[in-house]
Structures are given as C-alpha cells and as structure tokens.
Amino acid sequence: MGVGFTVSGELLGSMSLIADKYEVVRKLGEGGTGQVYLVKHRDLNVHYALKLLNHSFLHDERFIERFKKEASLLLRFSHPGITQLRDFGRTEEGMYYMAMDYCDGVPLKYQLDSESFFSYEDALQIAIQILDVLEAAHTQGIVHGDIKPENIMLEKMAEDDIRIKVLDFGTAVLKQQFAEEEGAVFGTPCYMSPEQAAGEVTLDQRSDIYSLGVVLYELLTGHVPFEGDTVVQTLLLHLTQPLQSLSNYYGVPREIEEVVFKALEKTPQARYRTARKFREACEKVLHELAPGTAPKAASVAKVQSATVEEEDTDAPEEKRTKILFLDDDEMILNIMQHVFEKEGYEVFTALDCSSIHDYLFEEGIELLVSDVQMPGLPGTKVCRLLKKSMKDLKIILFSNIPERDLEKHSEENMADGWMSKQRKPEDWLLEIRRVLGTS
Known about the structure:
Number of domains: 3
Helix content: 25-40%
Structural class: alpha/beta
CATH superfamily of the largest domain: Transferase(Phosphotransferase) domain 1
Number of strands: 14
Order of helices and strands: EEEEHEEEHHEEHHHHHHHEHEHEHEHEH
CATH architecture of the largest domain: Orthogonal Bundle
Radius of gyration: 25 Å
Shape: globular
Number of helices: 15
CATH topology of the largest domain: Transferase(Phosphotransferase), domain 1
Strand content: 15-25%
Strand order of the largest sheet: 1-2-3-4-6-5
Largest sheet: 6 strands, antiparallel
Distance between the termini: 55 Å
CATH class of the largest domain: Mainly Alpha
C-alpha cells in the first residue's frame, strides 16, 4: 500500500512507496504524460528512474493496449547504449508505471550549452554511438520519435572516453498517444522530421535519422538548423527552408556537410535508408579526415530489418501521377506538397488561378485539388468551368467548411470528390486514391 501517495500524482511524501516495492528518493521531472522519480527498489537496493503516468490514461483502453505492447517489446530490447526498461505495471491506486535504469551522467544538452559546439571528431563519434543504438532499435521495429540532446546522456569512462546513453525509448509511445489526444504534434519542434511537422502519426526509422541529423548539425555549429519565433514557424521551416552551408559559414569539412545534409533531406526517401547506412557514412568520413581514429560504437548483432528495406537505386523510375493543388494559403500548399511527394506523386502548387492553364496543358495534370474559398474566382466556379471543357480531368474540392456543405458543393459543381482540411493526411490520401482509381 502506498504511503503519502495520491492518485493524481501531485503528492509523494519522503517515505512514499510505489507498487509496494519502489521507495521514492526524489522527483526528477515531469511532462505531459506524467512524473519521473528517482526510486530505490526496497529489496534489491537498486536505483531506477520510474515514470508514473498521469491518471488521465487510466480509462483509455486503446492507450493501455499500446502501452502494454510497447512495454513488452522494450523489455526484450537490450543495448549498452540505452537505459534498459526493467519493469512496468500498475499500482494499487490504478496508475501505470515503468521503471528504467537510472543514468547518472551529463545531458548532451548541458554540454552543448557549456561548450557551444564540438570538434568534428567528437561530434561524429557521438553520432556513431547514437546510430549504433538506433540501428539495434530499428531492427526490432522500435522507433524512438524524440531524438534530441536532452535525451542523450554522456557518461565519462576511463581514459577520457565518453559513452552515450539514449534515454526515453520507454515513453515515446506515451508521448505520441498524448499528442494525438490533445491534437498536438508529437516530438520536439526543433528536432522534428518534416513528416512529423506535417502531422503524420505513423513514423518509420527515417524520422529518427532526420532528428539525429539535426543533433549532428547542432554539435558541429552550436545551434539547430531551423528555429522560428513560434512553433508553427519552426515546423514550416523544416518543411520548406533549405539548409545553410556548413562549409561556407562554419568551416566544417565539405565531406561532413554531405553526410549531414543527406540525413536532413526533406523527403524520407532521399535520406539514408537505415541507421546503419548513416553510421557507415560517419565512420568513413571520420576515418578519412582523422586517420587512426577508431569509432567507439559497440558491436551490435545484425538482425534483418522489418521496417524499411534497401531499394535498388538503379531501378527505372516509375511514371508519377501529376497533381495540382490550388490554395491561397502558402502553408497549406507546403504541407500538401510534402505529404503527397512523400507518397510518390509529382506535385505542383498555385496560389491563384492565373497559372492554372499552363499547368493543365503543359504539365499534363491529372488531378486538381482546389480550395473552395479562393479569392476572385471561387474553387466551385473553377471546377464547373473545367469540367465542361476537360472531362478527363479529375477534380477534388478542398475546404474547412462543414463537411455536409462541402459534399453538397462537390455534387452541385460536378467535382469527383471532396476533402476536409479538418481531416488527417491519411484521409486525404484515401480520397485521392479513390478518385484516381488507385485505392
């Protein structure tokens, strides 16, 4: 029975006990999903970092199933570069918890704040160790989803060697669930991949590769590549802004710049396909620039990846369906371009109707997705006019008006379909596939 414990988790006295076996030493921090405590196992006399989940998750059956599945997977995932998940369960008060190894090191974030930036040898060594961990995780189907300096700990070893620990593998699924229910983005804006910034829920290993690319950029320069005045601005920069040259502005060797820039490609297909490929590129450039410097990554048993398979880069490129998005909101266009280029479509965008003719006749557009509420010439009128003269052109109306009204506009103006801006990208993709007959 817990002593000095409340279900809300707001009070834990100095003699508190969690799950009848973990004595609370002190609070380490808290976030949207719960509180983290330094605890001592009363029988084993071992210290752990224990995450106590907020009571808001108690009655969410979908979350509980995801939590149990993820925790079971993580219990079997072992690597010297992680804080191992040791236990998970439910207290008598009904709150879920997970206990992980406690790492008494220095956060990489603190080291960055103190030193501003790292030598390229040290930066690459740190990246190689992190990639070694990610490679092991990805081969087991585990995506971290929130790689950032705050989740990397540095442990000082003998002879000035530094060993890293990647934290928070055990709570990535919790943060994602919390973000979905709150209607927020999952991750940390400055370190998000473009697909995270676009609001995609299902992420693969290439999202982690991008986030580590951001960390490596920061290690080399002292700051992240993209940071706006607001969260929305930062997300938009990830989606649209080109990178500033590391060699021209910071004196970073061009060979390293090429490695970092490939990890930071906007589309997942253009990045390193696996953490192993990224790690090998880092090792190669480290060896070339600093001969005799051995990478410090621990050896990892190689398991066949069940996530993203290597592609034959020499295979002929398939013909891509051409889509034109017409909207007076540039941010919407940027998001649509990112989402649908990632799905293999050739995307064109227009802020007004002035260039529609050129796109339709010179580019051979097969599908037009038009905002209903366009200034000047409404999307409904554009649809009606084009349908009379170009019967083979598929048209979808796109808007944030009530869906019943949007469906009515679609029927009245001979559109082939409609999409609500309030829906998720997955829903847009399904409608586009239906209209094109590729579902």
